[in-house]
Each structure stands twice: as structure tokens, then as C-alpha cells.
Amino acid sequence: MSRRCFPVWLAGILLVWQVVTAMERPLQRPLLIYDADCHFCGLWIAWCRERTGDRVDYIPSSEVKDLFPEISPQNFEESVQYISPDGGRCQFADAVFMALATSWMPAKTLVWAQGHVPGCRPTLNFFYRIVARNRALFSFLTRILARGGG
After folding, report:
1. Average pLDDT, the chain
2. How far is CA 126 from CA 3, 28, 38, in A?
3. Residues 72/91, Cβ–Cβ less than 8 Å
4. What is the pLDDT of residues 75-95, one digit of tens each?
5. Whose CB has fewer CB within 10 Å in the chain, the N or C terminal residue?
6. What is the DSSP string of 38-49?
7. How far apart are alpha carbons 16 and 11 in whole angstroms?
8. 10 phi and psi, to 5 degrees?
């Protein structure tokens, strides 16, 4: 039996504690809140974590929804939520690209385009909503593509 230096469940508790105490002080890093019950979301959160490393904290909405009463349950169900250290918030494709832009150049370019190219933001958010409404299908397609590429 292998011994872990730091139990995974303890890391989760510490992250929730960080978010709770952040209500009294700014976050140290951006926070991306996601639906942990969604298989598709879990696949893509893992992909995002690989790219952002420790520059972004990720936490399931079920663990923090009471800490952010300004975010409706419907918003948590429809989309990931990005909370910046200064308290700013965005959702849909904006949230994904803001998180990825902390360390991944293609996302930095998309964040720039969302603010400067007419129609970019609504188009990306439109496609995000299509994917969000069809998570089972896109989860299946993601698994097929992942098997084919590896």
C-alpha cells in the first residue's frame, strides 16, 4: 500500500477553506467553479488544469454555491463561473478563456479577440451554450477523439 504525503480529501478541504476565507480578503488566484456531477465538465476541467497548473484554483459548485449568493443556481447549472482575485466574475466561454489565459497563449489571443473583434464574444458564447445543452453527446465525442489521439 502506498502512502500519500498529502491526502487528496485534505487538499479539497483546504481549498474550500481558502474560498471561505476569501470572502473576507481577495482570492490569491482566479477560481473556476464547475459542475462536478457533469462527466463532460470533469474531462475538460482536467484538460484546463494541465494548462494552468497552480495559476487557477478549480472547485465544484456544490462545495461553494452558498458562498456566492450572487450566482444563481441556474447560472451554476448552465456554465462554469470564473471569479478573479479582484472579485470580477464571468461565465460561459468567457470564463473558460479567462482561466486558460493565465498561462496558455491561444487563450490569451481569444480573450483579446473577445474584447476587440466585433461578434467574437457572442459567437464563442453561442457555441459554448450549444455544447452545454448537449453535454452527453460532446462527452461521447470527446472520449472518441481522446482514444483516437492517444
Report:
1. 86
2. 46, 31, 20
3. no
4. 999 999 999 999 899 999 999
5. N
6. -HHHHHHHHHHH
7. 9
8. -70, -35
pLDDT at 17 over 80: no
Torsion of CA 112, 114, 117, 122, to 10 degrees: 170
Find the DSSP H helices in the chain: 8-22, 39-52, 61-64, 73-78, 92-100, 105-116, 120-133, 135-149
The helix/strand/coil state of 91 is: strand
Q: How many other CB atoms are found less than 10 A from the CB of residue 150?
A: 5
User: Rounded to whole angstroms, how far apart are CA atoms 73 and 112?
Assistant: 29
| pLDDT tens-digit map of 101-138 | 999 899 999 999 999 999 999 999 999 999 999 999 99
Q: Which residues contact 142 (CB under 8 A, 6 or more apart)?
A: 40, 43, 44
Report how far residue 34's alpha carbon sits from residue 142's, in angstroms, rounded to the nearest whole number: 18
**Residue 65 near residue 15, CB atoms below 8 Å:** no
pTM, 2 dp: 0.79
Distance (Å, rounded) from C-alpha 37 to C-alpha 115? Answer: 32
